[in-house]
Amino acid sequence: MVLTAAVIVLTVLVLVDLLLSAAIIRRLRDTEAQLADAMPSTQPGLKTGTPMPDFSSADGSFTRADVAGVPVLIGFFSTGCRYCPAQAEQLAHRSSEIAGRGIRVVNVLTVLDEDGPDDLTPVLEKSGTVVTEHGPGGLMAAFSVSGTPTFMLFDGHGTLLGNGHTLDAPLERWIP
Which CATH number does the domain 64-171 belong to among 2.60.40.3780, 3.30.450.150, 3.30.1360.200, 3.40.30.10? Predict the structure, then answer.
């Protein structure tokens, strides 16, 4: 009889424990969803599906009209960027593959130190047009870029197909 009562009590305690655990898990999931909604996006720049903004480089050499009707990959680099040289080399290496898909490449290079070395321009010129801005400028702001390197792939209608801090991020779905 005592053994039966102990089994019943133990069963009740296990069931209560399961109910409490389920409630805690549900509460954690709700909290996680609320945090995900409150946190800023980790996607750099514009959100996928966003139309290309109207823009013009400081010297007027590059505008939205220059890429109208053509798929374009825009890469943002800076001279003081630690990761930019490797991504620039990868872009130069894959430039013929990208061009073979009919995608124009435009590189926006932000020069932070006028007296510092510019090792990126020769590498970037291998992959496409290079637009130079002196100091964080209008193009980075127009595309909501907060860090370099950043890549954005737009279709011929000017809709953002993908973006990321590495070359592979925007291209993975379009050029396997």
Answer: 3.40.30.10
Cα–chain-centroid distance for residue 140?
A: 13
pLDDT digits (tens, 9 = 90+) for 47-90: 889 999 999 998 888 999 999 999 999 999 999 899 999 999 99
Q: Which residues contact 109 (CB under 8 A, 6 or more apart)?
A: 77, 78, 79, 118, 120, 121, 124, 130, 131, 132, 133
Question: Is-cis flag, bond preceding 40, omega within 30?
Answer: no
Burial of 89 (0-12, 13-18, 19+ CB in 10 A): middle
- pTM for this predicted structure: 0.74
